Amino acid sequence: MLNLSSKARFQSRSIGVFSIACVMSLMVAMPVAAADTNTLGFVVRDWFTSVFNSKFLDECPEGLTMANDEIWWRGLSKEERATVTENGLIQSLARQFITPRRGPNGEHVCHDPTSVIDPPMKVVEGKYSYGANLDGDTDGSPTPKTCSHGNFTHPDDGTPGIDNQMYRLLGCIYGWRRGGLPEANAHEGRGTSGLGMILIEVSGITDPRNSDDVIVTFYRSIDQFALDGSGRPLPYSSYNIDMKDGKPRYNDSLKGAIKDGVLTTARGDVRLPFYGNYNFMHPIIRDMGLKLEIAPDGATANGMITGYYNMDEFLYYNGGMTGHVSGGDNCPSMYVAAHELADGYPDPDTGQCTHLSSAFEIGTYAAFVIHPDEKKKITKR
Amino acid sequence: MMFSLPQLLIVKMRHLCLAAFAMMSCLVLTGCGNSEPEITGAPPDMRRLTDEQYVNAITDIFGPQINAESHADPLLRADGLLAVGARTARITPSGFDRYYYQARTVAQRVVSTENRTSMFPCEPRNVSAADDSCARQYFTKIGRLLYRRPLTAAEVQTPIDAASQAAKVSGDFYRGIAVGLAGMLTTTKFLFIIDSTEPDPNLAGNVRLTSFAKASRLSFLLWNTTPDEALLTAAETGELNTKEGLKHQVDRMMASHRLDTGVRAFFKDFLQFEQFETLEKDSIIYPAFTIQVAEDAKEQVLRTIVDHLIVRNQDYRGLFTTRQTFITGALARVYQVPIARPADGAWLPFEFPEDDLRAGILTQVGFAALSSHPGRSSPTLRGKAIRESILCQKVPEPPGDVDFSLFEDPNSPNKTARERLTAHRTSPACAGCHKITDPIGLGLENLDGIGQLRTTENGAMIDASGDLDGIVFTDAASLGMTVSANPATTSCVTQRLASYALGRSIGAEDRELLEYLGQGFEDDGYRVPALLRRIAYSDALFAISVPKTDNATVLSNVDGAVQEKIEEKQS
């Protein structure tokens, strides 16, 4: 454990050294054990599926995909339309609970997406996407670990071979585009509920701006965000790790390095907590990598998580949202498209890929990650 | 001549050795010691209860379930203390309205169905009618606690009559009692601590405080509340008029956990913590500063004080260097330190490392935030606060025509407060005062307007060095050491505590008393409980002089003079 003295810490800040490592060293000297002075901590506040929206919707040349509501409405007979609108007297239909129940036997098409066959949904046909080259190639050819897929080019730096089939699936759905309701609602819910709290702990820091060999561990917190008057999280808050049977409930780690304030990890499978739109999940993101740009003052860090996201878990999440009115998606069409677009981890028996290459934009705040042993020491005196 | 801190310590050590040698020589050769001087005392007076004393008294008399509040007219600070300003406090018409509203609220809660059984010594014969006998029992009992002395027959009769009339009108005995009780709660006899006197049997022609007035002085000094039953009984039996009896009661009260309340009350006054009630910060500049932070910051300083001075009985000077404190989740975010329980508001012990810049209460969020502007720090306000509150030195008010343009110019090339104040001080009218405040306050410039650590201001490195009365320091922590070593630090708290206890300004005529207390404080290793005990044991605490008047019947008019003041205040 690197125990920088706090004054040394303070002086190190004064010469421009990254502040979070410094503040982490400002801890209770006695009897509280020193918090790990070579550790940075972050709490994830923003988690948005990364979608590239061009100015003129070029990525969706045929427009946005047809939503469940429209398909439902088109499928109604004249008599049925008269019934649900009380002969045209009701314009604003309380339809959110009835439109998905259009299976042949009243099945909920989001819970049972194969109960009907809908027109294919529109998917992204553009050239650009955010994300990472997960499979190392630029042509999307199948490999033992991947299925055939299209590649994108990064819109900012022109990097070829970007894998982001999740974007290809969602980019032409009104609600899943930037600022859409499903993401906004999930974001809002996480901000005030204390659910799905992701902690990122970076240990092995030698220099907060440049460290060649660090370990990045992902935990869940059981504490809510500490918010300021305008609802933004306050940096340097403390968050306890969620424990089960004496061990962290989430505890996966990746190797990484920090160069000029940018943390980049190697890839590995990581299980993360997730909460959004009243659904709890704990997806394992395969071949996950994190790139995090730490602000010079150390108070915030923004970046991207990339990797292969389990298709069934995503479909379960999307299908579990209530109503599908504002999301603008259609579950049966999405189910088919997702299976066609899945590009990672083929099923050994069927060859059907089970994961979608994905990218998530994250925003984090500097935080103290409190381990149970530290908690015991802090509360002991 | 400038001393560095180590040099100062050597000089102080020499002084201490010489003083110790002189003291031992004195004791060996002459048997001399530090004995209490006789002081004349001040004429009897009356002081309005502070809001906290009002709430404490109601809570102690009727119980916490009454949930009392007080929002009286603000007291004016005099000679550094609200406790002294309380002598001149009046009750304005709107202030009386608030007292009356609160009195009615308290009275209604006292007679409520759920509370009345535990609070009444008797049951009325008929709850739908007046019962003067039961009312008399009640008002006699409760009046003694409210007025902090037994009531005269007339004083008991007044609420009985009011209760009787109200019971007849309302057809409810308890509603009648509530009316009588509300009346008692709005009299000056409850709202003011009155120096009632009696002829001094040991000194013909003089007066002394009644033992009940002594009980009030002791109780409000040590516990900041009304006398408890044991203290009133000691007053009743005359125990408080004997040295042994007084000592017994003081020792009992000093041993109580309620001493914390008394010590907190003094330091809240001493450090001018009433300013927290109007403390505001710009949430755009300081998003971490919430209402909770303000409350916790105040509480942190008080907890540190009680822990250092009472729980651990440490040297008063150590308050300015101690690294031991307590924090909550809200404060941890401002201090940018980890805490095990971030969300539930729990207070956890905390200690800053030995070489941290934070040491002592001056570096805590409470002091740093209170003596700053809403959107920036203020070396001037901080220096002024240290001079006036900690060292008891008067800083002149700024002239009315101060030109702040150089200081506040947003396009100024001066990036740090030091640079801006240097430019501002080019005006001779400003230089005089800033010279005595800024060199101290600049030592805290590594703490921003809410006490968060910083190394730069507007991109420029902060120089937190300075000097206090010729002693140089380099940063916030060493400023604390410098304050701690300043002789005015201990003499100031001695003077303020004496003034607080006596409820009046300390003047030149009290010089010997201050010397006695100061010497005792030093002999006791600057332990505040010992100083408090010395004051509580002293004759000075109860010394009263006859008001100066040409009237020959001085003695008989002493209480009359107070009564006149009562009427004047009531009017």
Task: Write a structural description.
The complex is a heterodimer of chains A (381) and B (571). In chain A, 21% of the residues lie in helices and 26% in strands. Chain A is of the alpha+beta class and 381 residues long. Among the domains of chain B are: 145 residues, no CATH class; 172 residues, no CATH class. In chain B, the strands form 5 sheets. In chain B, strands 1-2 form a two-stranded antiparallel sheet. In chain B, a hairpin with a 7-residue loop joins strand 3 and strand 4. In chain B, helix 1 runs parallel beside helix 21, helix 6 crosses helix 7 and helix 22 runs parallel beside helix 24. Chains A and B meet through helix 1, strand 4 and helix 9 of A and helix 15 and strand 6 of B.
Task: Note the topology.
The complex is a heterodimer of chains A (about 375) and B (about 575).
Chain A lengths: L5 H9 L4 H7 L13 E11 L18 H7 L3 H7 L80 H6 L10 H13 L4 E6 L7 E10 L16 E4 L2 E2 L2 E2 L3 E8 L2 E4 L2 E4 L2 E3 L2 E3 L2 E11 L5 E11 H10 L10 H11 L2 E3 L6 E18 L1 H9 L1
Parallel strand pairs in A: 4-15
Antiparallel strand pairs in A: 1-2, 1-15, 2-3, 3-7, 5-6, 7-8, 8-12, 9-12, 10-11, 12-13, 13-15, 14-15
Chain B lengths: L4 H26 L15 E3 L2 H12 L19 H4 L7 H18 L2 H7 L12 H15 L6 H18 L2 H13 L2 H4 E3 L2 E3 L7 E3 L1 H12 L6 H8 L6 H13 L3 H12 L20 H21 L12 E4 L1 H7 L12 E4 L13 H6 L8 H12 L14 H4 L8 H8 L3 H14 L14 E2 L2 E2 L4 E3 L2 E3 L2 H10 L1 H16 L8 H13 L4 H10 L16 H17 L1
Helix pairs in contact in B: 1-21, 4-8, 6-7, 6-8, 7-8, 10-11, 12-24, 13-14, 17-20, 22-23, 22-24
